[in-house]
Structure formats: structure tokens, C-alpha cells
Amino acid sequence: MRLTVYTLFQVTRRTSINLDFDLVDEAKRVLGISETTETIHRSLQAVVRQARLQRLAERRFDLGESESVNREARTAKAPPVSLRSKASA
């Protein structure tokens, strides 16, 4: 048996962009990162993730009648949920 391993390379290019460094410094503090490149990458990842979550939240899911009935049955049998932590209860 022959095993083939594929390596995916991340596409990276150098570019020159104008940045608001006060905003970059604030993002560094919020993210707890000291490097500008990593700050930009993490910020872009957060923006893309938020957009994907927003698109997912806007989708409509057709559960069908049987799934809707099953969900209602499970919900009716579920114990009540407390918002207080067990330590403070």
C-alpha cells in the first residue's frame, strides 16, 4: 500500500498597505498579540468568521413536521435550565 501525503501551502504575499496604527495597537491589546502581521491575520479571521456566522443565522432550516414534533416532545421532557451557577445555588 502506498501512502501519498499532500501538503497544502498557505498563499502569502508581501504587500504595502496604509494602516491606522492607533487602531492596530488597540487590536493588538484586545487580542493580546505583539506582532502586527499576526494581529492583521487574526482580525481578518474574526471578520470572516462573523460574516459566516451571520449568513448561517439568516438561513432557514426546514425541519419537516416529524422533526418539529420530535423537538417539541424533547423540549417538553427536558428539565428546567437554571442560569445560576451550581456554586451559588
Question: What would you say this structure looks like, in words?
Answer:
This protein is mainly α. It has a domain at 18-55. It is 54% helix and 0% strand. 1% of the residues are buried.
**Number of DSSP helical runs:** 3
Molecular shape: extended
Average pLDDT, all residues: 78
The count of strands amounts to 0
| SSE pattern | HHH
- Helix/strand-derived category reads mainly alpha
Low-confidence stretches at least 5 residues in length (pLDDT < 50)? none
Quote the distance from N terminus to C terminus.
59 Å
Q: What is the rounded Rg?
A: 23 Å
User: How much of the polypeptide forms β-strand, as a percent range?
Assistant: under 5%
The share of residues in helices is 40-55%
Largest sheet: none
Keywords:
89 residues, mainly alpha
In short:
With 89 residues, the protein is mainly α. It has a domain at 18-55.
Topology (elements, then pairings):
Elements: H1 21-31, H2 36-58, H3 64-77
Helix pairs in contact: 1-2
